[in-house]
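Interim report to the steering committee. The following record documents the input for Large ribosomal subunit protein bL25 (228 residues).
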Amino acid sequence: MSDNSKLVAEKRTDFGKGAARKIRRAGNIPAVMYGHGTDPVHISLPGHDTMMALKQANALLTIVIDGNEQLALAKDVQRDPIKPVIDHVDLVVVRKGEKVTVDVPVHVEGEAAAETVVTLDHNTLQVEVPATDIPENVVVSVEGFEAGTQVLASAVELPEGATLVTDAEALVVNVTAAITAEALEAELAEAEAEAGIEREESEEGAATEAGEGEAAEAETASAEGDEA
């Protein structure tokens, strides 16, 4: 994991929606920091630097308040549903040597065998790791995997010092055979038949059948003329 980001914060004494809006208008982000039995500390964080630091999941932050440094993890980040800004951050205090439980993204790499589909059933794995050594992700290689191969959480390689918290039997990656166009068409037709849906003829097919009908009528008329 990269070095933790250092953010210089200011204590705030005004609370409520109005105070929070004022902080955001000034380009900062309202936040609260708590943990280890300490009273919550309400602070204001520099907007741009905080957004950059929180681009990485489970980013370890060094919060500087009145010259004192405190390690913290973002427990909850509230983002604006429309604009690309952060509305509020909850920070939990951590200490060096302490272990924390976090959700770490799963990254799939490599190419499975031909005509297969790789499905990621768990986007993250919950692990317990030292607060100062949280991995950015865990990697699962599917190189050459054949259809029918499954990777369980217990088979995912974790970094040294990490302990799996997610159920060891949880399915993380599933490799299945790719369905052919013919098989997909057959399944669709079967589903439609079960639902009592009749397919309409395509315009091209209808036109072909109409043409064949006209030709047949012409032949019949010609045969009747010869007989006459």
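The longest helix spans residues 203-227. The committee is asked to note this result when reviewing the revised timeline.
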